[in-house]
Amino acid sequence: MALEKIIKKLTSDVNELRQSGRAKGKEIVIIDTIPASENNGPRYLVEGMGDQKFIKMNANSYLGFAFNKDMLKEEEKASKKYGIGPGAVRFISGTYKIHTDLEERLAKFHNRESAMIFSSAYVTSMGVITPLTTKETIVISDELNHNCIINAMKLSRPAKKLIYKHNNMADLKAKLENAKGLGKRVLVVTDGIFSMRGDNAPLKEIVEISNSFDEFFEEGVFTVVDDSHGVGAIGETGRGTEEYCNTKVDVLIGTLGKAYGVNGGYVVSSKVVTDYLRETAPMYIYSNPITAGEAAAVLKAIDILDSEKGLKILKHIKAMTIKFEQGLKDLGFETIEGPHPVVPLMVRNTEKTTSLVKYLFNNGVLATGLNYPVVPKGDEEIRFQISGEHTEHDINKVLEVLKNYK
Questions:
Q1: Which of 378, 384, 370 shows the shortest CA–CA distance to 21?
Q2: Quick check: do 28-57+308-403 and 69-305 share a fold?
Q3: CATH topology for 69-305?
Q4: What is the domain partition of the chain in residue ranges?
Q5: I need a labelling partner for 156 at 20 to 30 A (CA). Which of 173, 237, 313, 325 fits?
Q6: Which CATH architecture has domain 28-57+308-403?
Q7: Mean pLDDT, 10 residues at a time, the chain of 406 residues
Q8: Which residues, including other chains, have CB under 8 Å from residue 322's CB and lie 6 or more apart?
Q9: HEC profile for the chain?
Q10: How far is CA 325 from the centre of its chain?
Q11: Is there a contact between 138 and 176 (Cβ–Cβ < 8 Å)?
């Protein structure tokens, strides 16, 4: 059979990943949920684990909106009005008013001229960076940028790719200096929040440095920031790393599938940029949009975030993050402190990381172990993520489990 030879090779490759401890392994299947109570956040039931209740400490849903009754109500109402799916891409069968309403709301939320939504955050980065990169473009990227940025750079095939050391502004300057004469435009791209560590890019300095080199390039130097883990999770009003750093980048990418707890991605910038992307980004042109129900749920999520209730949730997330970080330190674990609700427990060893994840699972805690090549060798970790649904009791429970780890 035609597949026999390749099956043999693929089997060998998967076995090597498993033996080295780098395989992600079988995915956990969640079969039911138990609603939050006065003291506990939601609990989850996992296939094959009977009635054992799990605390989820590995979700990107930072605001804790997964079960928000107002959002569920709006999603159901929009689905009844527009149907459960869009049926085709926007340029073929038209777009729904609720999609354009959401784009207008996102642009207003980020104080930009225009916004456009994509089917996911991953394809947003791919769909933004690729069309904005020409054969005469130099792309300069932080060494710890997300996989979507790395693959977007590969796909776009710029004139030159330059990688600067993580958050090292002297090295960014050096790379911009090296880029002189190599192309007409420079795209400086970074994550806002680095999802594996929870630390943030120094956006104010990045913008200032980029602007200082603008005169040396015919088509200028502009900044692109993927703040998928920042929006809704950091900043006084949840507007992300820009707000936290008190600056504004040229092109901002966000997600609807993390803090907002729904699905999809988006970009905000000038109207000229979004007009250009609507005509040139294949990930937008040839992909269905998110459903009308999802768009309605996000609109409600933004309304909640932009209210007193939203501010209260943000303060709670911050307090629980501080509590968990301090608890890890008190137990003698290494972490990377910061205001973002990603709290890494640095293990720095693949086998130990795998062992700790298994121990946590056996004791009712869902957490994600990150090993090479997802993170560099020596940076292996357990990534914990704090949610607006986590109570003090939840945090104490997880810390108690870790306390008993041998």
A1: 370
A2: no
A3: Aspartate Aminotransferase; domain 2 (3.40.640)
A4: 28-57+308-403, 69-305
A5: 173
A6: Alpha-Beta Complex (3.90)
A7: 86 86 81 91 94 95 95 97 90 90 98 97 95 97 94 93 97 97 96 92 98 97 97 96 97 97 96 97 94 97 97 97 96 93 93 92 94 82 95 97 90
A8: none
A9: CCCHHHHHHHHHHHHHHHHHCCCCCCCCCEEEEECCCCCCCCEEEECCCCCCCEEECCCCCCCCCCCCHHHHHHHHHHHHHHCCCCCCCHHHHCCCHHHHHHHHHHHHHCCCCEEEEECCHHHHHHHHHHHHCCCCEEEEEECCCCHHHHHHHHHHCCCEEEEECCCCHHHHHHHHHHHCCCCCEEEEEEECECCCCCCECCHHHHHHHHHHCHHHCCCCEEEEEECCCCCCCCCCCCCCHHHHHCCCCCEEEEECCCCCCCCCEEEEECHHHHHHHHHHCHHHHCCCCCCHHHHHHHHHHHHHHCCHHHHHHHHHHHHHHHHHHHHHHHCCCEECCCCCCEEEEECCCHHHHHHHHHHHHHCCEECEEECCCCCCCCCCEEEEECCCCCCHHHHHHHHHHHHCCC
A10: 21
A11: no
In the block, tokens 């946590």 appear at 360
Instruction: Record the tokens describing residue 296, joined without a space.
Output: 């309605």
